Amino acid sequence: MTHDLVDRLTEKHDVRKTKRKLTGSEKFWLIFRYIALTLIWFLVVMPIYVMIVNSFKGVDNVYLVDAFKLPIPLDFSAWPVAWNGAAFFPHGLNESMFRTLFFVIQSALISAVIGSINGYVFAKWKFRGSNVVFTLFLFGMFIPYQAIMIPLVKLSNTVGMNKSIYVLVFAHIIYGIPICTLIFRNYYETIPNELIEAGRVDRASMVRIYRSIILPLSIPAFVVVVIWQFTSAWNDFLFAIFLTGGSPKLSVATTALNFLTGSPNAVYYGMNMTASLIVSIPVLIVYIFLGRYFLRGMLSGSLKG
């Protein structure tokens, strides 16, 4: 009897296993959050569902009244037409997709390298007025595309880049430098200064320290910047439409969709859905396979010390 009483008094209770009853107010907000998340999920997923479902209904078998219905039977005829083109759609997506991949990879890699060098200088080799220069770099992030449309077109015409896809490479590199510099600068601030001092003690130059110490530690930041620049350049429409003049020979993924909308008397919804799905596949692949690395890279530079 005495031993049982002592055991009960000295027994340790696991607080984590004890569930506190929710009050009426807490239950209401919990239910409200679940309902709100369900509605948001529905709003996000439903357009994707409609696009996928209607891409398997053929070129001209999609109507607004049955847009939400499943395809019975499956019709894949819109996919080769959207990719290769046809008599009534002379411009397919194949050339535009490869052209987009060509300029997007270049602009992402070049802007990432330039941003890395700038971030390294602003973070570890500060000079008089470096904070002012860095602030001016950041102003480039807030200049809207519409504000530089006319000057950029005149510049591209003057240097003869208006008839080349490199005009888009140039535009996205220039616009990508500010955000790339910001990301790399914040990331390099988390690298201990003792590593830089150790390199100086060994008489390593500024370039040698960057190549041997900083660059091997920059993989997470490079992943973040490349993914950011890739998606930004791939999804861009404004630069692509006014710098190329809407020419089919310079069309990229987003502008090529204009040539697949159909005629003024008929809109081929099946073709539109299929083409939009094909154009979005590269970005989906990037985020599906590299999304976790993107988050790790963002978080790795968010805390210092």
From TrEMBL:
The keyword Transmembrane applies. It is a multi-pass membrane protein. The keyword Metal-binding does not apply. The chain crosses the membrane at residues 28-52, 101-121, 133-153, 165-188, 209-231, 237-260, 267-290. Keywords: Membrane, Transmembrane, Transmembrane helix. It holds the Pfam family BPD_transp_1. Its main location: membrane. InterPro entries: MetI-like, MetI-like_sf. Residues 97-290 form the ABC transmembrane type-1 domain. It is found in: Membrane. GO terms for biological process: transmembrane transport. GO terms for cellular component: membrane. This is Unannotated protein. It comes from freshwater metagenome. The lineage of its organism: unclassified sequences, metagenomes, ecological metagenomes.
